[in-house]
Amino acid sequence: MNRIEYINIYISSKCNGKCTYCYLPDKKKIAPYNKEIREWLSTNKYITDIEEVYENKIRAIGFWGAEPLFNLDCIDIDKLLLSFSELDEIIISSGFISKINLLEDFIKRLNDYTINYKRKMLLSIQVSFDGNEEMNDIFRGKGTTKKVLANLDRIIDFLNSLKFLNLKIRISSGSTISNEMLDYLVEDFPDHQNFFHTLSDKLIKNINEDKKDNILINFLLHNKLATGTINYSKEDGIKYSKIQSREWEKRTKKSFKGFVQERFNILQTFKQRTECAAGITSFCIAPDKSVHLCHRTFDYIIPEILKNNSSMNNFVFYDKEKLLHYAYLLTSNLNFRININQAIIKELIECGEISEIYRNPFYSYILARHIATKFYCYMDNIYETGSYNVQSINLFKVYGNGALEYHIKNVMENL
Length: 415
Fold this sequence. Notes:
Elements: E1 6-10, H1 27-30, H2 34-42, H3 45-54, E2 60-64, H4 77-83, E3 89-94, H5 100-116, E4 121-128, H6 133-140, H7 144-160, E5 167-174, E6 176-177, H8 182-187, H9 189-205, E7 215-218, E8 224-225, H10 234-252, H11 256-269, E9 274-276, E10 279-285, E11 291-292, H12 295-300, H13 320-350, H14 361-373, H15 378-385, H16 393-408
Parallel strand pairs: 1-2, 2-3, 3-4, 4-5, 5-7, 6-8
Antiparallel strand pairs: 9-10, 10-11
Helix pairs in contact: 10-16, 13-14, 14-16
């Protein structure tokens, strides 16, 4: 268990948001538990609980909730960072509606610690945003967008007032897609994308020049499906696929159809090659035993892999055994994920949650592989978390009910 390096803990049962798709049960019923949570945090019991399970090896911790900002004042930063000497990232996911003063106090305390103890840290703040102002207010509550935008301006002003040394702060958006949102996104997708790009540009412009290396902004329209029990129809799946393909083409300036075609050409060539959300990831051992590399491999394993920088064709491996070890590690990881996904697919078919066509072993494999490879980076996952995470069941539902069929209908005529 001590190999798990990234954990999430729920630090609040209170929330003043009004999201229509909230995964929490009745918020009024769980709110009273917040008193117990505050005691758990303020007495540092949560630290001893983490140490019991994961020892002191964690490198990243996420604070989630309901709304985690309510209880940030209970976090003793000195105690937390002294207890976990390898911890170098804290993640906070917030609706950003209120309690910004508690976030400012938390950032100040964290910044002071990084200066006093000469310790490098990254604070990642994920701000919940689903789309443009009209759509965001429909699904998160009237007036929510203006409050969030005002609080973003406030936090940028606050960060500009600090003196940074070892702390970096990354502020990004977290979008959620429920089936009720699909029509809005399909009809006005460019408008929603432009909203995020305009917001990013504005926030970046407001950062003082001497703070630009320490304050990072990344607001994008992501495709994260809502949690909770949602039934997706085939029409929902097709709408989701259209949104995904438009987002991919906008981001990469390439044809999504060509991307899908290339992925399936690879599948027919050799199964051990791994793809990822970034495009075509070439980390694998091919049938001729040659080793193919992706850019993350350079980042993590072999930063000086090229003896002659002028040529990208002549690779000299400093540690060939180590490279082969990681290649087999990643391909085994892929096979492990696919097998788990196929088991999930089988259960969902029996429950009537996804299309019967996935009883076919080949189609089941295609769906399992797509979900295993489309949404994250293998190298990041292994090196930054040291763990395996099961993908959202709703991802299986939406892709198993039309989304994947829409993606590949022009590539595989017989599906």
